[in-house]
Design goal:
Elements (H helix, E strand, L loop, with lengths): L8 H7 L6 E4 L3 E5 L9 H16 L10 E5 L2 H7 L8 E4 L2 E4 L5 H6 L7 H11 L19 H5 L9 H15 L1 H7 L9 H12 L3 H11 L5 H4 L17 E8 L7 E4 L3 E10 L3 E9 L13 E6 L10 E4 L2 E6 L2 E10 L4 E9 L7
Length: 363
Amino acid sequence: MTARLLPLLALVLAACDTLPELRHEGRHVRIGTSPGLELCAGAVEHMDRFIERMAAEFGVEPPTGDARFTYYWLTREDFIDLTPCPREVSACAIIETVFSTEAPLDHELVHLFVPDGSSFFGEGIAVAYEGLGGAVEDTRSAEVKRRDIWSSLLAPLWFGVRYDDAGAFVAYLLDRHGIPAFQAALPKFPFVPTRARLDRVFREEFGVSLAASVAEFAGARERCPHLAYDRKLMECNAPAIAWDGEHHAEYRRLAADEPDAVGPYRGDELVILRTLEVPTAGDYVLEIVGDPPVGGSNIFADLALSLVRCGGCDDGEPVGFAVESEGRVTLPAGRYSLRLHASARIDTRVAYSLTRVADTTPR
């Protein structure tokens, strides 16, 4: 959440003496952590690249030097005791600084690019750009039948906003009107919303009424899930897997100290990000298997491979699959985000593969 807490700047500065030391220095972000919290080796680079891509989206330069963003990853106790964030939340962004009980949390980094104002549109753009995180399955619903946009639009504070609905509507506005038009409108959305005040901004900035926008969204995009409308800046720009379109296999180590390991999401989720181009639509077999982790314990509950189709709501039906051992899936041609998931607590080796099933249809 963005906390519209400029009056609390004095409190932030007063808390700085007791906040943890900044231990990690990135190109665009500095990170402090509570004692006992350890980032995966690729987390700082992930955050730096996310900031670079967000800056490119918004047409600004990423912060460097003394202007870098600051990110505090804190235990729940430290979060409550040392930050000016509301106790009801687990993260907030205030004046180029993120306070969070999770790391990385790209949702909060988005807030650092967004002017403080409307809860609905501020949270909506953060959800639209937040990425898929570390969960094997999207934490936001994959099946949407109806969205109540009006009640969230008129909510004056974040706790009245349905985040997924706000994200879906903002993603529609970005696609419909473009990023520059949305950026121009964003600081004009009222802090205390009414239909009349919001409608005025829509007519002036988008050339269409608020009611017409909501109606068009409901007719064309209401059922589009977060899996599709999210921009997936990191997932769909990750290093590409080189393969022949028929078979790919890799054997590698999964551990928190691997340079491309991102996390620990929600305290324990490690993710490796790749992209995969599927040249031919068809059926494919996905397989993943792990060796016993170092230490002997056979912990594979969190080991999985997931595929999510890149693109947005206008690029066909959303496609997302996950397997914990083996599965056969039907994939349209296109680019996919391929993610390897594991617990950040284990040190193991994993073999995974993707194999196209031969077409046996008589010709």
